[in-house]
Amino acid sequence: MDAAQLAAAIKDLTTEQVCALCSGKSGRHWQAVVSAFQDAGVDGDALSDFVETVDALKGYLCDELGLDVPKAIARQLRKILERYAVDGGDGPAAAAAPPPIPRNHDAAAVAAGPGGGGGGGGGGGHKAAVTVLTSVPAAAIADPQVALRVSVHNVAADNAGGTTNVTLDVIASAPVPLVKRRLLQKMSKPLTTGVTLTHAGRQIVAGAPHVEWSVLSIVHAAVRGESSAPLTIDNAAHHPLAAGNVVLDKDGRGGGAHRSSLTLQVHDAGVPMGNGAFGAVFNGTVIDGRLKMPVAVKKFFMLENPMLYGFADAAAVEEWANRDLLPEVNVLAGLAHKNVVQLRCVGLGTVHGLTVPAYVAMDLCTGGTLESWMRDGKLTNAHVVPFLCDLIDGMAYLHHVKRLVHRDLKPDNLFVQLGHTTGRPVLVVGDVGLAKQVMRTMSLVSAAGAVAYRAPEAMVDISHCSSASDVFTASLVAVELVTGRQVYQTCQSDAAAKQALVQTAKTKVIALLHFAEDSPLSVAAANNLLDACTVVDPGARPSFKSMVGKYKRQPDGAQVDEEMQRLRAALEEQRVAARQAEERATREREARELAEAQAAQQQAAAVEAQRIAAREEAEACEVRERQAREARERQARERNQQALARLSQWTRTRMHLGMTELKLGGKRIGGR
Q1: DSSP 12-77
Q2: What's the pLDDT tens digit per position in 167-221?
Q3: pTM score, whole prediction
Q4: Most buried of 24, 244, 291, 474 (most Cβ within 10 A)?
């Protein structure tokens, strides 16, 4: 069919009709295509510009929608569109009705796609249209582990109660806890955040193994601003943070992943990633449905060998957990920010009959530390401005949202996360274990960081540490990040040298900002951060909140574009994760096949070596037998020769005696 005729035939197709045309196809590529069409609102008008050739259609799928599909998918899609055009609109697209829009949805916003309809948070008093989708139709679900995806259109916040009201549309059967976790992950909320799901005025509880969401008309969710009950010894078994199953490589304990609960795999059979005073850190994996997250798991020594640490009974273990472990876990559990390492779950263990969090799983930052990046030359000018923004944003979140002071900022405690949805390496604030809640009357601190990154007031009196001390320390890190030189080591106590080094850093950042127009970091915000290490008076130092306030303002509509980019990036992250999992499986299979081939070769070599050794042994035995036979023959010859010699001697002796007797006999005869 002519491309112009095909374009005219499909031009009026809606997004739902385009997806219905593809509904007869199966496989992960087609699931990705349908999901991308739904997310981007692809209709017939959008496709009509690319149906001229199969290559043009493939370019649209890969370049515009960010898919990784073979050319065969584009060829099949064009044939589907041609078949629809030839049938004159009689087909699945014509018969399919678009999915119902919940009563509280803004139809214009839904038609416009994520972020459409001019919606920032809380605008217009609409309830949020949060759609929880599955990658496969409900009828096709065979795997009990459902891969859910959440799209957020608008959010209505109840400022008085601190509650966010959203509307869910779940097209599949799925457990209630899994739906809640997907919603919180999409909204960047901690897993401890309280969520209440209701339908027709009745609360949906997590008692049933799964809910047939597709038969429910509208499901409302109230996401509370505060977290649910903190983790305690008493509620550990049923707390949202607790993994329902812990699998240890070391002794094979644990079972399979459960559909509605988290599963924590601890790869503790090998060498730990690191060791501390209280535990070792191992690689691990958190399994949530089909979502698998690599984590760093801290395994506590004293819970594995309690008697060695003075834990004689359950009371001693409970006292330690309530004093040292649970407060830190609950602080970490409340963190949910892209620039702060997050707690993913805790694994429970039994010590003296008491169930306690024996394993703490945090984000695994695959890029290493900022210190290693600076030491190994990985840090380039392209990373400086984004990393400064990440540092400011992460610390502003800790200080002004969570009311925490870090107290141990240094390049060793700042990690680089690769493969983030932003498409670039992201700097993440880690090791928040020393952080303490900032009370209304005072800052509770009991330790400070490394001396090379310590604020002046911390050197004089450790109790004077506050959020201003973190600002000073972050400024030292920022100057080192920009210039590559450690402030105290370079300048010692020379104030003029420090001022000159800071000025060098400010000049370089100003130059770099010319090439980072898309960054929100402004010259004023960067100067505030870099100058802070020259301010001795803590009260005169700027706050991270003031630095964020000096960010460059985004143009109108930027929030909408940013949300669209974030959603697309999240989808791309899922695709990348799936592709990486497939590549990892391929590598493991190839490694296994190579190992089997090498083992077969080694076995064949061992058999050959045994055969050669046997042949050599047989030859050696033959040589020994020949030598023994020759020795026996030689001995026999020698004995024969000796016997002949003795016989000859005896014969001569006898002959001599005979002659003598003859002579003597002759004399006797003659004398007579």
Answers
A1: T--HHHHHHHTTT--SHHHHHHHHHHHHHT--HHHHHTT-S-HHHHHHIIIIIS-----HHHHHHH
A2: 776 656 777 888 888 788 777 788 888 888 887 777 887 665 567 766 666 677 8
A3: 0.60
A4: 474
